[in-house]
Amino acid sequence: MNRIEQTFKEKVDILNIYFTAGYPRFDDTIRIAKALEDAGADMLEIGIPFSDPVADGPTIQESSQKALENGMTLTKLFDQLVSLRETVTIPVLLMGYVNPIIQFGISQFCNKCVEVGIDGVIVPDLPMQEYLKVYQHQFKKSGIKNTFLISPNTSNERIELIDGHTDGFIYMVSSSSITGAKSGVQNGQVEYYKRISAMNLRNPRLIGFGISDKETFKTACQHANGAIIGSAFVKELKEDASEDAIKKFIKGIKGQV
Q: What is the pTM of this model?
């Protein structure tokens, strides 16, 4: 059983943490991944730096730019990830834009994911129809879970299509905006959460975008299987990327301090 499936089967209130590969320092990727697992994160998303991250807010854009300046590339990321499974046992996904993956080569990308122990991918700008026609076979052959995003503006028809072709989890974007930590639960979000819950989708769901603290994490867990935190954690790394700071951040989100 894939590590993602196992986690959703065994755990509730899942905390999935995003961070950018090669940030704040080039060689921080594995260290941060291990520190996050040790601190209590249930799942990780490692961001592939890209020069034009259109869906990301300023915090993640800045981290991506810094990682590129540090010399991070997809090839070098896979070189780092060779040692990933020596210390990290929880599910790990790669999140990035489709352009660098296509330039790397879809077949080679999937093979490298298998080689280093990556469980799934999130490619926000990969069109569903293109995935189904061109890439789905390769991902399924490799056993790599492909997660798609939905938002408050996504029609029920498209949500059902995504549910039928997603085999990891559904990424529920909490609002129709770019990524970024926001304070509190925004107007209309709970109604959106309830609408999706009522659809009885076959896939588990994690809520992301704007999840930044214990309150927003708790609310997300009431309406889905857990939540994804990105910008708030990346902002923390900018201030202090030490193991102690990472532990304090995770414990604070989970209400364990």
A: 0.94
